[in-house]
Amino acid sequence: MSKVMIAKYLMNICPNKPKFQENHFAQEIFRHPNYTELSQDKKEALLNRLVNNNFNEAKSKPFDLFFPTYPLKKLLEGKNVLDLGCSIGGKTIYLGEEYNVNKFYGIDVSKQSIDTANLYISKQKTKAQYKFIHAYAESLPFENDYFDAIISLDTLEHVRSVIETLSECQRTLKKDGLAFIVFPSFKFPFGGAHVTSVTKTPFLEWFFSPVTINSAYQEIVSKWEADLDWFKPTEETTKGGWAAVEGGIGVNGTMYKNFLSAANKVGFNDVSFVKIPLLYVSNTAVKYPFVKFLSSFLKPLLNINFFRDYLTQRLVFVLKK
After folding, report:
1. 69 by DSSP, 3-state: which?
2. Is 153 inside any structural domain?
3. 117: part of which helix (H) or strand (E)?
4. What is the Cβ-side half-sphere exposure of residue 177, based on CA atoms within 13 angstroms?
5. Closest-CA residue to 315 (of 152, 81, 89)
6. Distance (Å, rounded) from C-alpha 11 to C-alpha 30?
7. Cα 52 to Cα 49, 132, 172, distances in angstroms
8. Over the stretch 54-98, which tens digit does the pLDDT of each residue have?
9. Which domain holds residue 112?
10. DSSP labels for 235-281?
11. Which terminus of the chain is more solvent-facing, meaning fewer CB atoms within 10 Å of its CB: N or C?
């Protein structure tokens, strides 16, 4: 029995299928009949709700939680900041208003997400200035030494080249500029391979490579009914074979050592790892504080490099140019 067959068998033990959810944005929503069959006015109303939900999600679990020893508001107040992977912009707008940012740019590979963010912000009165741009992280459309800071949440695991992305971050940051990067390791046990849309079976990432998991994922998805076409990978999402040969729905398999090596290689002067143990900054811990307390007992294990991929809620880095 091949590894792909074994992975597929395990996925099918606890099968799952994606559902349309307004309270948890996924860009596939733009292809769902609940959106495509609406009138233009109703589409705009739905998009407005999606951004508001994204805003409130960022408010309920602030970005600061990942950086307990860094005064983000003080560091970003009055500064020019980039959100790398801004999605529909709700998170960006919340952080911009909360941190009193001067100019906040957001980039994302989804043009519809960018259009949604720009539509929303065009109707808002805000303290900060916002500009959302359709672009790829490997080729940022900004001059050298442009930003005081860059933030990124749950994006680096999706970029097509981590080293090119970090090189662009280093290029566009000013001297002594900071990048606050948060993303799940591929070995994160509850979704590192991003296959929760097909299975609830945990820990697959601990036993299978990105290519194996993705192959099993693609075989399962190919047999889905027509009413799930809205979620199936499109030609764009598999451009260049990217999602077809890497993990899950297009993750690059990056882990602690890969990222650390890339950050050092592109020339960041200081690379700091922030130890955030498993479940410490989860939705469950936000709702039930005792979970955070229990999670804290894992923190000493994060002093050992090996455990950083397996027992962190997210890989959290602060990079200084």
Report:
1. coil
2. yes
3. helix 111-121
4. 22
5. 152
6. 27
7. 5, 16, 30
8. 999 999 999 999 999 999 999 999 999 999 999 999 999 999 999
9. 1-279+306-321
10. TTTTGGGHHHHSBTTTB----HHHHHHHHHHTT-SEEEEE--BTTTT
11. N
